[in-house]
Amino acid sequence: MASLCTLLGLCCLAAPLVLALPPFKSQPEQVHISYPAAPYSMVITWTTFNETESVVEYNVWGGKLFDLMAKGTSTIFEDGGSEKRKLYVHRVTLSGLRPGSAYVYHCGSEDGWSDIFYFTALNETTSWSPRFAVFGDMGNENPQSLSRLQKETQVGTYDAILHIGDFAYDMDEDNGRIGDEFMSQIQSIAAYVPYMTCPGNHESAYNFSNYRNRFSMPGDTESLWYSWNIGPAHIVSFSTEVYFFLDYGVDLIFKQYEWLKRDLEEANKPENRKTRPWIITMGHRPMYCSNDDKDDCTQFESYIRIGRNDTSPPAPGLEKLFFLNGVDLELWAHEHTYERLWPIYGYKVFNGSADEPYVNPKAPVHIITGSAGCREKHDGFIPEPRAWSALRSTDYGYTRMQVLNHTHLYLEQVSDDQYGKVIDSIWLVKEKHGAAAWL
Ligand SMILES: *[C@@H]1O[C@H](CO)[C@@H](O)[C@H](O)[C@H]1NC(C)=O
Ligand SMILES: *[C@@H]1O[C@H](CO)[C@@H](O)[C@H](O)[C@H]1NC(C)=O
Ligand SMILES: *[C@@H]1O[C@H](CO)[C@@H](O)[C@H](O)[C@H]1NC(C)=O
Ligand SMILES: *[C@@H]1O[C@H](CO)[C@@H](O)[C@H](O)[C@H]1NC(C)=O
Ligand SMILES: *[C@@H]1O[C@H](CO)[C@@H](O)[C@H](O)[C@H]1NC(C)=O
Ligand SMILES: *[C@@H]1O[C@H](CO)[C@@H](O)[C@H](O)[C@H]1NC(C)=O
Ligand SMILES: [Fe+2]
């Protein structure tokens, strides 16, 4: 051995004075990143099955690999299944990042390191034009859009990904192993750009514990509701599920509502709305849809839209709150289809004008994009579109969004079934934002 070592010229490398465990249960996996809503920062999250330190080694692209180091903490997540499997979820916040610079990193500990990944620190000005991939309802089986998203993400097509609920189908299954498998599948996109989420109905097991423990969204609600700023946009993510899983606490509806109200009021302060004019919401179950299943938006009055009167006290819905606060765009999923609506409030269409419905619209615009692909396959539509439905597609796919500047926002729908063809696109143009824009 000594001679081989000399032969390879390796002996001059100082051997670290640690007796390393073979990286097996201590091997990092399921690496993903998120923006903590603190400027110049990024959170790196991963999983091990044994307790280890939580370390990220990194540096700017082109610099000496791993010259910088940050440490974080891990929490034990015990899955609710019969095996009570234990995962160590590690979180490290990188701060003081240089906006617009690419960083190379790996994460883990002396007991095992991940592959090498890279990300670009977000530009912190309000004058840039962030680009997003947006979708919901992606499973570990049949995630049809994933390969296209992998390539596009890795070549830098997106600055962030918005996954609007329903992961893995379902993360808790097989004692959480389906969650592990899914989080490993999305590493190919989620380790490269902030992967921002909200909960869906498929996360409900054990009070959403797989969702709350595996993701690391901003704020202190265990990723259930939060907001963040990017470029000229303020993005508000919330849980539609608080309206459905009352056993986990009716109070959550009210807590979230009060938080949404305060957050939207803050975002509407003139100095804030002036610099970040776009307010975009994301929540899983839509207020409107024209699908042919038995969901809230098809057969019943949507709880999300008008609230519930069978709780005590009655729980307020969100349509009016969003309207009064001048929310520009509402992104939804849950239906495994794509549907674009004309500007709408209270079932009435409020086009900007007959020729240009999305130029200075007089009500929020809704997009439902839940067709990324999962084992439940497609949903269908009722034969006749409603008067408020502008375009519908049952193709698998996802949405691209770019917030160009203070007045222009671009949306397009990609069909994976048609090999990446763009099957819909709109410009949403607003010279005025806020409730005053509706007048
Ligand atoms: C790693 O975790 C397993 C349980 O998953 C445990 O039996 C084992 O003792 C742990 N090993 C170390 C070195 O901590
Ligand atoms: C951020 O974006 C703005 C607008 O595109 C650009 O002028 C600026 O140079 C960018 N900042 C960095 C650090 O890349
Ligand atoms: C469910 O989780 C939420 C968020 O942690 C918590 O506020 C709530 O009390 C939990 N509900 C139950 C019934 O444990
Ligand atoms: C309660 O809400 C339902 C819709 O969810 C509605 O049909 C019903 O009329 C409401 N009842 C009262 C008393 O407001
Ligand atoms: C809104 O605009 C679209 C497209 O021009 C049109 O088809 C629809 O009828 C308009 N709706 C109303 C209520 O004006
Ligand atoms: C915003 O972007 C649109 C589309 O590129 C462009 O036509 C418009 O002039 C831009 N507005 C400003 C103020 O830069
Ligand atoms: Fe769903």
Automatic annotation (TrEMBL):
Gene3D superfamilies: 3.60.21.10, Purple acid phosphatase-like, N-terminal (2.60.40.380). The keyword Transport does not apply. Residues 28-120 form the Purple acid phosphatase N-terminal domain. It comes from Anguilla anguilla. InterPro entries: Calcineurin-like_PHP (IPR004843), Metallo-depent_PP-like (IPR029052), MPP_PAP (IPR041792), PAPs_C (IPR025733), PAPs_N (IPR015914), Purple_acid_Pase-like_N (IPR008963). This is Purple acid phosphatase. It catalyses: a phosphate monoester + H2O = an alcohol + phosphate. It is an enzyme of class 3 (hydrolase). Its EC number is 3.1.3.2. Keywords: Glycoprotein, Hydrolase, Signal. Residues 363-425 form the Purple acid phosphatase C-terminal domain. Belongs to the metallophosphoesterase superfamily. Purple acid phosphatase family. It comes from the Eukaryota.
